[in-house]
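yo, Protein msta, isoform B is done. seq:
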Amino acid sequence: MRLASLLWKLSRAERPQASRHRKTNPESWTKLLEMQSHMESRTPGTEAYDEANEFVVEYLMKNFINSLDANLKSKFLPEISSELLHRMCGIIDTNALEIRLPDGAELFALYAKTYLVEHSCLPNTKHTFNLTSKDSNELYTIYMKAVVPIQKYGHINTMYSHALWGTPARRQHLKDTKYFSCKCIRCSDPTELGTYLSAAKCLVIWETTRLHI
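structure:
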């Protein structure tokens, strides 16, 4: 099945996953909690845990959640805790996609189906976002498009790192943020498929002379 020019829409173009309260939208809440958080690797003392704890968890608990009226907290945020906030940080760090707005601002969005697409440093799809719609139901919709022919039953993959980074930088980034060591065809090839993108660049030109006797 050739998909080179076919616009592949997830559920007719997937909208970002809303982080709603489990009582008002239990289905959305369940899908959110199904996403990987890698909390087993984000333990106290790790950079990811300590950073989230300082800049997100403690800040929210101290400045907002702990100051809420008990009745409001019981009604709208009965399950809130430091542990849950850490889990949300893990889910966002692991699964969120970066959206760059025209004004230079950056957003991070969770998509309930797109996050399941596997990674490859030689992806066969690309994704774009609807950033111009005046309809709030269409804004930030994600579209995935095949960039090469994909055979029937073939894997559909995308890239969770940066295409112009060399192998060491890509693998370290994926290890630090997604908690896996990439072994795709590009990472497994020392020449990076003949591009030598990670090769050291010679900064000195040596002149050779021939000795005549």
